[in-house]
Amino acid sequence: MIKKGMRRQIVLHYILVVFLALLLVEVIFLLAIRTYYYDSIYSKITNQLSTAETYFNKYQVKGMDSTVRLQDLLDTFTFNNTELEVLTRNGDIVTSSTGFQPDRTITTSDVPEAAGGSIGRWVGRQPGTNESVMAVSKMLQIHGRDVYILRYLTSVESINSGLLNLTLLSVGIGGAVLVIVALFSIGLANSIVKPLNNITAVSAQMAKGKFNTRIKGNYRYEIAELATTINYMAQEIVRSNQIKDDFISSISHELRTPLTSIKGWSETLVSGGYDPEETKLGMGIISKESDRLIGLVEEILDFSKLQQNEMKLSIGIVDMKVLLQETILNVWAKAEKKRIHLLLECDDAVFVKGDANRLKQVFLNLVDNAIKFSHEDSSIVLTVQSLSNQEVAIIVRDSGIGISEAHLAKVRDRFFQVDALNGGTGLGLAITQQIVELHNGRIEMHSELGKGTQVTVILPLATEQALV
């Protein structure tokens, strides 16, 4: 017995479908054979009745004695293995080809039908012998005077016996077909269930943390797609875990460096004995490193809020020209150290509907990245272009080191860093993209290694009603 499961369901469903199909075909086939044989007998008897009626009306002499006529009828039109009976219209037997004339009235349905003018047909059990028979009756007028009913009675036992043998043969063939189908369905079920069991076992290993395990096997169709998807999932989990490990290592280093500076200068200042200039220098370093720590923590908190859909936007009308000018002023000192020129190309005021602080965070991050990866004595250009009456594009373009095609597809992934030596959490672009998406916008990036990068932020323009 097959245990409960998909294998059992497949086998049972296949057998059920084939069994119902075989049953339907066999029933239709046997009924068709039975109808064919019964109709053949009926047709032969009907033709004999028509011939008898024609013969008597054409060749018999009108003055011939009735008894002689009936005897001539029995002698001329009797079949082998068939009884011919002559009945009155009421069904009483006048004579028969067997010479046996029981004192009874025939009440089967064929007699009233014949008395009504049609050809009657009845199939059933013969009283007394319990034999299966067919009776066909027709009314016969001899020269328009004497009216009789001719009734042929023939056994159908041999036909029923042949049909029974044919039925048994059909059942045997059907049983053999079901056995073959069962074996085939078991093989088919195994071809489906075994790969699934393998996939389940590998998935269980992955659930235990063994993400280097892979599903192996030459599968096809949907099962192959499932195996490929699970392998890809495991690969991505391994990659994500590696990225998180790298992030933890990187953020630990990022946090440790300013903390070391703060701790060192704090201990130095506590010990005393320094002139005001050295004290001022130490306090400045402590303040700068504290700001750096705050920035790192805020970036992590922002990412956490975005992941949990807890970041709230303070929506208003934002003048992008003013916002970009403020962004340039905020990073001007950092750009000046590398002698990088910041240029803004925006002729008219452009208004969008959004959170000014979060949008400023977006462009600060983009411009800061551009400065970080640009060469000295280069330029960074911020361009505002209206795409239509509904959207505006803000382009940040530099001529720095650029990003390779392999890294460009991953640069917006969380924790990903093109160059871990430059510091940072690897969350900046991930946060930037999510903030832009919260404003119903999108980011497009184009870069060529060694020639620079262009980042385009596309935002919906504020409607005229909102500006009023």
From TrEMBL:
It is a multi-pass membrane protein. PANTHER family: HYBRID SIGNAL TRANSDUCTION HISTIDINE KINASE C, TWO-COMPONENT HISTIDINE KINASE. It comes from Paenibacillus agri. The keyword Cell membrane applies. Keywords: ATP-binding, Cell membrane, Kinase, Membrane, Nucleotide-binding, Phosphoprotein, Transferase, Transmembrane, Transmembrane helix, Two-component regulatory system. Residues 190-242 form the HAMP domain. It catalyses: ATP + protein L-histidine = ADP + protein N-phospho-L-histidine. This is histidine kinase. The lineage of its organism: Bacteria, Bacillati, Bacillota, Bacilli, Bacillales. SUPFAM superfamilies: ATPase domain of HSP90 chaperone/DNA topoisomerase II/histidine kinase, HAMP domain-like, Homodimeric domain of signal transducing histidine kinase.
